[in-house]
Amino acid sequence: MEKREVLIELGLSEGEARIYLCLLKLGESQVNRIKTDTKMHRTTIYDFLDSLIKKGMSKQQVVAAAPARGYERRYGATSGAWTTTMFVEAIYDSLTQ
What we know:
Layout (H helix, E strand, L loop, with lengths): L2 H7 L4 H13 L4 H8 L3 H13 L4 H7 L3 H7 L8 H12 L2
Helix pairs in contact: 1-2, 2-4
């Protein structure tokens, strides 16, 4: 039985399993890289990430996936009162309440 099938047996959907395995393989990466690897649409990736969060994916796993990386050059910050990581963590917290 392959890893994807095991994850599905454990309760993940096909898409969630694909995203999860991609994140394990790539580590911190841009959504465009996940999109290329999984052949999924960007909005679908965000939907599955939201679903994985609701199923208990940790904040560290979500931050490591860097879901805002594609926007960092234009809108992001690595220092100051409100960093991109802080923004991602706040979104995570709001989704898990």
